[in-house]
């Protein structure tokens, strides 16, 4: 069994261009976390220039308001337009809290007002910048993200 594991570890690392032992996954996660934290800080400040710097030049933002919450009807592409939309949707106004949490197994953003979730954003990177943001604003889809009061 040990020989088989050693074979797959070596074969896998060559096959996918990973360093020995397949450690590149942790480097990618670290880069992803750092980029999401930079995006979160720009959102907290409401700084469109910082958001533009965190987003790729051809960034794509897809919103799901479910027809219940005002959101962009189609996807928005381009650094400037995407930065303005993200600032509008995720800038934390008074009474809200923007946190970095696991969304779909990777770092993402959750905006809450009190214990209720207002928005959840999944993030995809292209290098060190955010290339795609999926922002869910639909209240029906956010029910699982609400915080529970301790009993």
Indicate the percent of residues in helices.
25-40%
Number of helices: 5
What integer is the average pLDDT? 83
Content-based structural category: alpha+beta
CATH topology: Nuclear Transport Factor 2, Chain: A
The CATH architecture can be named as: Roll
SSE succession: HHHEEHEEEEH
Number of domains in the coordinates? 1
**Which band does the percent of strand residues land in?**
25-35%
Q: What does the main sheet amount to?
A: 6 strands, mixed
The total of beta strands comes to 6
Unreliable runs, pLDDT <50, ≥5 residues?
A: 4-8, 10-22
CATH class: Alpha Beta
Shape: globular
Strand order of the largest sheet: 2-1-6-5-4-3
Tell me the Rg in angstroms: 18 Å
SSE blueprint and pairings:
Layout: H1 2-15, H2 24-45, H3 48-54, E1 55-64, E2 76-77, H4 79-90, E3 96-103, E4 106-113, E5 116-126, E6 129-136, H5 139-142
Parallel strand pairs: 1-6
Antiparallel strand pairs: 1-2, 3-4, 4-5, 5-6
How would you explain this protein's 3D organization?
The chain is of the alpha+beta class and 151 residues long. The protein has one domain (2-145): Nuclear Transport Factor 2, Chain: A (Roll). It contains five helices and six strands; from the N terminus they run αααββαββββα. The chain has helices spanning 2-15, 24-45, 48-54, 79-90, 139-142, and strands at 55-64, 76-77, 96-103, 106-113, 116-126, 129-136. The chain has a six-stranded mixed beta sheet with strand order 2-1-6-5-4-3. A hairpin with a 2-residue loop joins strand 4 (106-113) and strand 5. Helix 2 (24-45) packs antiparallel against helix 3 (48-54) and helix 3 (48-54) crosses helix 4. The longest helix is centred in the first third of the chain and has 22 residues, at 24-45. The model is unreliable at 4-8 and 10-22 (pLDDT under 50).
